[in-house]
Protein: Sugar O-acetyltransferase
Organism: Bifidobacterium miconis
Amino acid sequence: MTVPQRVLDLMHSPGVYFCGDPEMDQAQREQLDLLYDINQTRQSDPKRRELLSRFFAETGDGLYIESPLHANWGCSTHWGSGCYANFNLTLVDDGEIFIGDHTLIGPNVTLVTTGHPIRPDLRERYAQFSEPIHIGRNVWIGANVTVLPGVTIGDNTVIGACSLVTKDIPANVVAIGQPARVLREINDHDRDYYWRDRRIPAGI
């Protein structure tokens, strides 16, 4: 990762900032060129791992990301070990994203750390703000989920498909909806059934 520290400090600082900085523009162009290379690389190519390590802030062992991947920066996203992301993951990662070990991300998921002020004159000047997203260990985020700025999702939690996560979700629950709300806790039933009335085979 070669993004200048001054650019990272600007993006990761609290409050409103303006994104027309020439050094920031140059750094983002370089990151997007690197992202292009990642998306053109076969999963079997050993070079892919090296490209991902250069692109992201952290890449844990066993990280596997399907192409295409979309990201504003990459250098603000931290991956734990054993993570998997399906097709069309979008990272609006001007702010930092932290993803815990063994987290699974379904297709067409969007993680958004960044927004723009409601005040029109500030938007005309390309003002924005970023708040970090924290996703715990062993989380499953279903297909077509969107997570908004500043959200924390606790360990082991499942976010149901097509949810819009606007507020923190605790650990060890199933949450779903727009906006996402806790549906139930993960419980003893889940030890025996993997989906609806489908029983987990003995010995697993």
